[in-house]
Amino acid sequence: MIKITKNNLFICATEQSGDNIGAKIIHQLNYNKNNYIFDGVGGNKMMNLLNKQYYSLKNFKSIGIFEIIRSIKKYLFMIESLSQVIILNNYEVVITIDSPDFNYRLAKKIKKKGYKGKIIQIVAPTVWAWRKKRAQKFAKIFDKLLVILPFEIKYFEKYNLSTTYIGHPIYYIKNYNNYYSQKKYIAFLPGSREGEVLSLIKYFKILADYLDTITSSFIIFVPTPPHLKKKLIYLTKNWKKKPILETKYDNIEEKFSQTCLAVVCSGTASLEITKRKINQLVIYKMNFFTELLLMMFVNVKYANIINIMAKNMIIPEITNSKLNETSILNGFKELYNNYLNKNDNQIMCSTNFINQLILSKSPAEIASREIEKLFFPKPLKN
After folding, report:
1. Which of 171, 216, 350, 367 is the 20 to 30 A CA-CA neighbour of 34?
2. Are residues 341 and 366 in the same domain?
3. Which residues contact 16 (CB under 8 A, 6 or more apart)?
4. pLDDT at 314 > cutoff 80
5. What is the pTM (predicted TM-score) of this model?
6. Cα dihedral 232, 236, 237, 241 sign
7. Helix (H, G, I), strand (E, B) or coil at 278
8. pLDDT tens digits, residue range 50-80?
């Protein structure tokens, strides 16, 4: 049996946005100087902060229900393997980030095996969109839930799950976009998972080839997670207008400051683009059968959070069966023409909703405070 010292935590992030959140929380907890040691699952951002890393983002490629079903044996094996690690090492706290289906099953597994420590989930499942019963299931397993959208608390507190709103990670995005009056980049963001990239890349190629025919003024820039760079180099090798693939944070921020337009895979990246005040077109593509299944259960009209909050399509989005060669070209032409005509209506209408997602303190500060309460609870009043 491995001897564990005080303040040992297990942290599990299986996608890029979770890796970003996890890294900032680890930094914040270490900044607070309470001698925490982390093992777990993470990507490039968390890799050097973990004492032991068991899996990386490369191991998580699936995006839809049917894609996950095809990989179910692999994921069940990973859950069993990680549960054994957690039980063996008897971590005081287990932190799971996003990926609710995977992390719920991991949390349930360790509970079944007799884990007595605290389990905290960061980023709630989208019960407001579909599968509302997950809120009650989460309340039975997790000790604490930290949410990044202000309207999510009510769905979980009704089942007595202690829930805290920590603000959205777009808090960390700085608006550098006004530094340069002359913009030279158009950003393509095809996703942070290989499955997303593979489902969308042909639409980005259509746009790249179209841009090659109409302008030489703009350069295509693709901010790329390190684990996907080789894949994207291969997938873009036949593009007529060659993109710049960028992985380094400072270089990405510099290019975003000179970016006029973006085409973005739906998700956190879209909110980051909105915070940067860059006009965008959001796209997404599920497996056809996944889309058919979700149509029967989903309770929201839009994919983008800003549109959901506004109950109106402020940010144009083309998703699933509506996404094809004609629709992507028409959507992009409208976006491009709006830029040429200096139409910033999208940015102006988004500002109020973006501001609702940002608190005075960072998500990592609030999250670390809640995590530390599990280690250092306030003494009971007499």
Report:
1. 171
2. no
3. 43, 57, 192, 193, 225
4. yes
5. 0.87
6. negative
7. coil
8. 999 999 988 887 655 555 667 788 999 999 9
Closest CA relative to residue 238, chosen from 195, 192, 206: 206
Q: How far apart are CA 21 and CA 23, in angstroms?
A: 6
23 CB contacts (<8 Å, ≥6 apart)?
Answer: 42, 45, 46, 49
Beta pairing partners, 48: none
Tell whether 246 and 309 lie within a shared domain. yes
Q: How far apart are CA 59 and CA 14, in angstroms?
A: 8
DSSP secondary-structure letter at 123?
A: S
Q: Does any domain span residue 33?
A: yes
Q: Tell me, what CATH number does 131's domain have?
A: 3.40.50.2000
Rounded to 10 degrees, what is the CA torsion of 197, 299, 163, 116?
Answer: -70
Selection from 220, 170, 198 nearest residue 67 by Cα: 198
Average pLDDT, integer, range 342-359: 94
- d(CA 316, CA 240) in angstroms, rounded, equals 26
What is the spatial distance between Cα 168 and Cα 172, in angstroms, rounded to a whole number? 9
Q: What is the C-alpha to C-alpha distance for residues 366 and 302, in angstroms, rounded to an integer? A: 29
Give the closest residue to 306 by CA, choosing from 335, 337, 341, 282.
282
Answer whether residue 380 is part of any domain.
no
pLDDT over 90 for what percent of the chain? 76
Number of domains the chain contains: 2
Alpha helix stretches (DSSP H) within the chain: 16-31, 44-47, 65-70, 72-89, 100-112, 134-141, 153-157, 194-214, 229-235, 249-256, 268-275, 288-295, 305-310, 325-340, 345-355, 363-375
The reply to whether 316 and 369 lie within a common domain is no
Closest CA to 191 of 267, 99, 260: 267
